[in-house]
């Protein structure tokens, strides 16, 4: 396993092409726009050597060796539960997305789906994927789970688009491998990953079989270009360490728009090539695994937001006010509700035919749907408690200026024994963790709410619920009623 430093050093040998704000990023480790995201992902490596090592590591079922949990294929419900607990703990330390879960989820989904394709189509993807897994575990790689296509006109299927590149597709095949073209959007952690694992983004018909492609691609493979996304307040990183609120780790995952310009992939890294009938299951498996996470990572973030709100109340001298206590209690309830859903969907996980474990799909979708609301409510309450200061604080540079600094120091003081700077820092943490990009990520990360609603409707077994109700209401099943009527007529 790599430790945090070894992970960071390993990134130096990669040469991905990344553009950001009109410039090329020469080193993701050094550049101020990417370094905080590197620090955050590095925490997934550090945890494997810290006091929570037991949670952060697992025994590989492929090699029997100890591996980082982020490269593990879940072998039981305890693995699924430990995953959630681990994510919560990492979030408490980083206060932001640490990105590496997307790859873990893509690996686990691929493990299941390649097995199924082989069983039904006689292909050899699963063994090929197992070899790839061993390579990922041996080198403790960070994999960017790369699902979301740019999608163009959402009312049209991939092959119906004006531009055929709106979904990643196979352009050609030869004896050595395949060539793919297209782009993947919202790519969390891509800039500081080692490889990406691309997979389909939607269900596909036979006419769209060229869009049914799964493959592992190094982030610096020829033809790959990344464009780094903008985030709320990201320019503050260039101006100091107070105004970002969380200078070491940033506020969200660091996403890219990743373009695949006719990228060659050798066959040993191709895990689906035209088997369109498995695309939907692939998407659903990956999505359910990733939705499971949100009651881990977002609850860890909520722990920090609740702590920051409580601290602001203390700095303002009102921690005992009843309405403040009520709001803190409500925040705790909202956070733990998300956690309950995550633990439940993990504990209710089941073995797959491939031998790995998979979460309960219905419950995993409730996790994420709750997050789309609860994180907004938690943030609203944090704003309520922290006060208007989070929206009107002066610039860090003015606080540090000899002309304006003394005024800010004097007039923005709260409780006498709390340094003004502590109050400012805490307010900035609340501001940055509860607005803009961070909130939008809670809404759309792991899929937009409508995607979860569709899954709930599909998975909830409504027919059975209707049966329960009819039974209690004394309504006989319709077939029996019709039969009874027919018999009466015969007589
Ligand atoms: Fe992991 Fe959460 Fe970030 Fe997704 S949003 S990659 S689950 S930390
Ligand atoms: Fe996310």
What does this structure look like?
This protein is α+β, with helices and mostly antiparallel strands and 491 residues long. It has 3 domains: 4-286, Butyryl-CoA Dehydrogenase, subunit A, domain 2; 292-452, Butyryl-CoA Dehydrogenase, subunit A, domain 3 (Up-down Bundle), CATH 1.20.140; 461-491, no CATH class. The chain is built from 17 helices and 14 strands. The protein has helices at residues 4-12, 35-46, 53-56, 77-94, 101-121, 125-139, 279-315, 322-347, 361-386, 389-392, 396-400, 405-411, 420-433, 436-444, 449-459, 462-473, 478-490; strands spanning 17-20, 23-24, 57-59, 66-68, 143-146, 169-173, 177-188, 195-198, 213-218, 224-228, 255-266, 270-273, 350-351, 357-358. The radius of gyration is 25 Å and the shape is globular. It starts with a helix and ends with a helix. The model has no long low-confidence stretch (mean pLDDT 96). Fe (iii) ion binds next to loops. Fe (iii) ion binds at residues 97, 188, 253, 441, 445-446.
């Amino acid at each position: 396993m790599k430790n945090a430093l070894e992970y960071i050093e390993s990134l130096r040998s990669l040469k991905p092409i990344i553009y950001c704000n009109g410039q090329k990023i020469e080193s993701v480790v050094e550049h101020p726009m990417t370094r905080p995201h590197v620090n955050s992902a590095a925490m997934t490596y550090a945890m494997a050597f810290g006091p929570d090592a037991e949670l952060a590591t697992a025994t590989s079922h492929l090699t029997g060796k100890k591996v980082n949990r982020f490269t593990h294929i879940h072998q039981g419900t305890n693995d699924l539960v430990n995953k959630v607990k681990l994510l919560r703990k990492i979030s408490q330390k980083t206060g932001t997305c640490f990105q590496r879960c997307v790859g873990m989820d893509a690996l686990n989904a691929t493990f299941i789906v390649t097995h199924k394709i082989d069983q039904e189509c006689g292909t050899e993807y699963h063994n090929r994927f197992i070899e790839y897994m061993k390579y990922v575990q041996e080198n403790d790689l960070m994999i960017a789970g790369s699902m979301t296509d740019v999608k163009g006109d959402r009312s049209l299927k991939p092959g119906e688009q004006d531009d055929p590149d709106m979904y990643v597709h196979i352009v050609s095949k030869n004896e050595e491998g395949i060539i793919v073209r297209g782009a993947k959007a919202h790519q969390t952690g891509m800039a500081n990953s080692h490889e990406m694992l691309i997979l389909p983004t939607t269900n596909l018909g036979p006419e769209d079989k060229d869009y049914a492609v799964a493959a592992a691609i190094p982030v610096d493979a020829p033809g790959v270009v990344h464009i780094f996304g903008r985030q709320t307040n990201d320019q503050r990183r260039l101006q100091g360490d107070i105004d970002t609120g969380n200078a070491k780790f940033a506020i969200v995952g660091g996403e890219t728009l990743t373009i695949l310009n006719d990228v060659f992939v050798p066959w040993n890294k191709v895990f689906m090539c035209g088997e369109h009938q498995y695309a939907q299951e692939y998407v659903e498996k990956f999505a359910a695994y990733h939705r499971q996470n949100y009651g881990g990572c977002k609850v860890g973030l909520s722990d920090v937001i609740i702590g920051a709100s409580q601290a602001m109340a203390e700095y303002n001298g009102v921690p005992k006010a009843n309405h403040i206590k009520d709001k803190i209690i409500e925040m705790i309830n909202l956070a733990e509700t998300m956690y309950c859903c995550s633990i439940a969907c993990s504990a209710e996980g089941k073995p797959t035919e491939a031998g790995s474990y998979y979460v309960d799909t219905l419950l995993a979708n409730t996790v994420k749907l709750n997050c789309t609301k609860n994180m907004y409510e938690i943030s609203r309450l944090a704003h309520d408690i922290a006060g208007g200061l989070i929206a009107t604080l002066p610039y860090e540079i003015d606080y540090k200026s000899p002309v304006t600094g003394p005024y800010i120091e004097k007039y923005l003081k709260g409780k006498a024994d709390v340094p003004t700077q502590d109050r400012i820092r805490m307010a900035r943490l609340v501001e940055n963790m509860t607005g803009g990009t961070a909130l939008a990520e809670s809404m759309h990360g792991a899929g937009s709410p409508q995607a979860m609603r569709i899954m709930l409707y599909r998975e909830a077994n409504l027919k059975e619920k209707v049966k329960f109700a009819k039974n209690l209401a004394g309504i006989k099943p319709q077939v029996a009623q019709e039969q009874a009527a027919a018999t009466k007529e015969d007589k």
